[in-house]
TrEMBL record:
Pfam families: MM_CoA_mutase
Protein name (database record): Methylmalonyl-CoA mutase
Keyword Isomerase: yes
Native source species: Aquibacillus halophilus
SUPFAM superfamilies tied to this protein: Cobalamin (vitamin B12)-dependent enzymes (SSF51703)
Listed NCBIfam families: acid_CoA_mut_N
Lineage, broadest ranks: Bacteria, Bacillati, Bacillota, Bacilli, Bacillales
Amino acid sequence: MSGPHNGGKSEGNISDNKHNGIKNHPKEIDILYTNSGIPIEFIYNKKSHIPNTLSGVYPYTRGIHPYMYRSKLWSVRQYSGFGSASDSNARLRYLLNQRQNALSVAFDLPTQIGYDSDHPFAEGEVGNVGVAIDTLQDMEMLFNNIPLEKVSTSMTINAPAAILFCMYVATAEKRGISPTQLSGTIQNDILKEYVARGTYIYPPKASIRLATNLITYINIHFPKFHPISISGYHIREAGSTAIQEVAFAFANAKVYLDEALKQGEIVDHFAQRLSFFFSADNDFFEEVAKFRAARRIWAKIMKEHYHAKMPKSWQLRFHTQTAGSRLTSHEPDNNIVRVTIQALAAVLGGTQSLHTNSKDEALALPTEDSVRIALRTQQIIAEESGVIKTVDPLGGSYFVEYLTDEIEAGVVKLLDEIEQTGGMIKAIETGFIQREINVASYQSFRQTEEKKQKAVASEGFSLDNQMTLHENNPLLEKTQIHSLNEIKLNRDNLLVSLCLDNLRKASYDEQANLIPFIMEAVKAYCTVEEISNVFRTVFGEFKEGNPNG
Ligand SMILES: C[C@H](C(=O)O)C(=O)SCCNC(=O)CCNC(=O)[C@H](O)C(C)(C)COP(=O)(O)OP(=O)(O)OC[C@H]1O[C@@H](n2cnc3c(N)ncnc32)[C@H](O)[C@@H]1OP(=O)(O)O
């Protein structure tokens, strides 16, 4: 059987096996059909000037796995969390019951910046943008009745990433689940916090030490866990271009790699489970090309610059979230359509994991109904649209290949510029990156003003007043503080002091990996803030414009 696009030939195609009459071929190379009965091979190659590449092969432009979604679907991973641990537990279990196949947890702002629910800075923020976690007890509640050995969990936490990761591990350990069974991702990408997201605590040097300590520790003990999710998403949401999104994320990745190599890590050990996080914005073909180009650039960086030997180190694994900044509060139902197009770009771009925004997210956290529609959007793409039947279906499109080349060239040029001006840390400290993003953001704003970029029905229409929005529980802060006080009264406070003291001493030793000390503290029910305060004392706090804290 020959594909309709290759004139009866299938040179360089794995399906040659079948054509050569070899039996026992993998089922993935079977012919599938469109709804109208047109046969579809698992991959197509054509024009001579377009690289005749397969997926699963360096430099992975077409995808990191040979059969992509024929072998395994992407992880359907809706980012969720609000209120108390038990509120969020109910939402996570609801999503699993609706056939979501992976979890992604949002933490509230106090947790993200290392404060407990009773800190004055936390007032009015407890449980607002994510779940409130003060101690191990909250984490146990969050994952109550969720089989951690079966489901992969992502946690969006950065400055206190190590603390929350240790709480997750301690929760699993209490249930007899071993480190080798746990799979998931911890965001742990502190560098982008300084340029785009804002939830940093300590100066960059100490933050990078904490991040790399966690990466090293996870790589040794948790073979199925991704120890970092290096984000271009937040950079894009802050107003960058697609080229900047990829370039700045890769520049940050190089900082972590360089630091780890300085500490004596072996590149293939460190790099084989690095993961990334990108946006799926509105410009459909550009987004597809961006993902393709990013895979190719990363593979070349790892192989040619870092001399990594293992294919796993060359492969760009990434999560995608549809662009939150493109949602409109007017006629919010239209957001379902926007999200569908963006999600389709992510899938055609070969994402490993996907969050689709809910239609009401420009207004509030999503309700159960709206998140179900967002989830169904992914399921409809996966199960009804037919787009997963062949790998990289846009590969070979003159336009998409042109965009892919253009994005690659732009990213490489920007990475070189950062290198020539002294590297990413310097670029962050001098505000170069922030300025570049601001300029791009301003230009995009001007284009919107001048109507060159459009959001349909973004103005002049009234809010859909039929819509029920998510409301926060007004009593949550009080109950959260009450249970925090109870824990502080009932735990072994001598052990708490001992653990915090051990952590303090270890923090002064630059060679020490701090994770085992954090693990002990977490198991003794030390709070997020108590542990963070140890680091505040030792490392200081970062204030913008004062890199030494
Ligand atoms: C905006 C908001 C905020 O600011 O607050 C946020 O940040 S939200 C941020 C939310 N962030 C996230 O949710 C991040 C999510 N990230 C991730 O899930 C990860 O980092 C990921 C992108 C690498 C995806 O990991 P995953 O476990 O879901 O999926 P993987 O693709 O790694 O697949 C799991 C296993 O199946 C294998 N596998 C996957 N696909 C195939 C295939 N087609 N053929 C053969 N094998 C395959 C993989 O190699 C892997 O095996 P093996 O394990 O053996 O290699």
